[in-house]
Amino acid sequence: MLFRLLTASSFLLSVLCLQGPQDVQCNNSNIFDGIIPQGYKKAVAPSTGGKEVDIYITLQIADIYGLDEESMDFYVHMYFDDMWRDERLVTKCIQRARPIILPEEISANLWVPDIYFENSKWGEMFKISVPNTNVKVMQDGMIYRYSRYVLQISCPMDLRFYPMDIQICSIRISLFAHPDNIARLHWTNDLDSPVKDIDAIVLLSPVKLPQFKLSAMNTTEHMQNWNTGNYTTMIAKFTFSRHLTSYIINTYIPSVLVVLMSWLSFWLDVGAVPARVTLGVTSLLTLATQVVQSRSSIPPVAYINALDVWLFFCINMVFATLVEYAISYYITFYKTFDGRCLCFPFQLCAGNIKKMAVADKSDPVRTKVSWVSSGEPIERLAPSSEKRQNISGSTGSMQTKPYWLSAVSTEWKIESLLLT
Prior knowledge:
By secondary structure, the protein is of the alpha+beta class. The chain has helices spanning 2-25, 104-107, 245-263, 273-296, 306-334; strands spanning 53-68, 73-84, 100-101, 115-117, 120-125, 133-137, 143-154, 166-175, 183-187, 201-203, 212-226, 229-242, 354-359, 367-372, 378-380, 389-391. Helix content is 24%, strand content 29%. The radius of gyration is 44 Å and the shape is rod-shaped.
């Protein structure tokens, strides 16, 4: 009986002794004591029972800037948050209070996910005044880490529809060394996530880019199979649509006006050669300058884009006006009246209607063309380099005939200065 009483009293004393230190461990003076237990291994992931540790991530976008077609990248200023559970930590006392920020000497000895950004060209964590990173313990014992980064992200672009293109840029996030059977990434808004009420991508302020508008954001994931296991990559996609206002004002409207200006030559007299040729050539040079300027703002790609097609079409329209003028000039002054013989310049054709070049006496270089028929003599006053030539009628003879007058008919008469 005495032995039983001694055993019961010693058990009660041991319980009281255990409860006393436990109460001391949970006071506010030493709340962080004993969080990391003995034998804790920082390099080992906190997977329990052979199950991988689930890591939930979210992006809080502060700003996106520097989206450039030439370098094909953009900059993002963001807060990166990741959450996971580590059952090895003793967080019983911390769970009784609000979320607690762990001291640096404790957080430096914890296991943290080895997260990296696959398509980043450059990145840096802010260290202005203090390193912009922290580790908290939530009320339910979940470890919550958040950091502030600025990243330069690669964004390959397809410029075939430039400047009416829509570019989709992405941030690819993955674990560097841990495969999916040890640790696996999830978005916070997954259906089975314990923090599903937190959005995967949060825009803290409106994004204002000079040439683009952020039209959509969405998330997805992709699994890659490597020889060391399967690795899941989390992908945050940003859809950018280009502003067209500047291109309409600076490129499309001026090119349309240049084409319309080249069409003004249709209202000029067909004999106004300097005016019509100058108008067409000036329009061509203006469009060529626009092509060079449009190419200077994008990288040299091996394919044509929508703006190239538009400017090429405008150049063809202007070139067509020059071709039209050459054809109309030729038909007006070098075609026979009855349409049976289409002659080359400075060559007369055999037929009942013929042309005659009459020199302008005030300017011996300029000539005008008239159409002649009947038996009256014809004379051609050539430029100063040639002498006036007399052409006889049907019974007359042609003296000092050049080769291009060998087929002249015998009867001539002036019919018209221009074909109608």
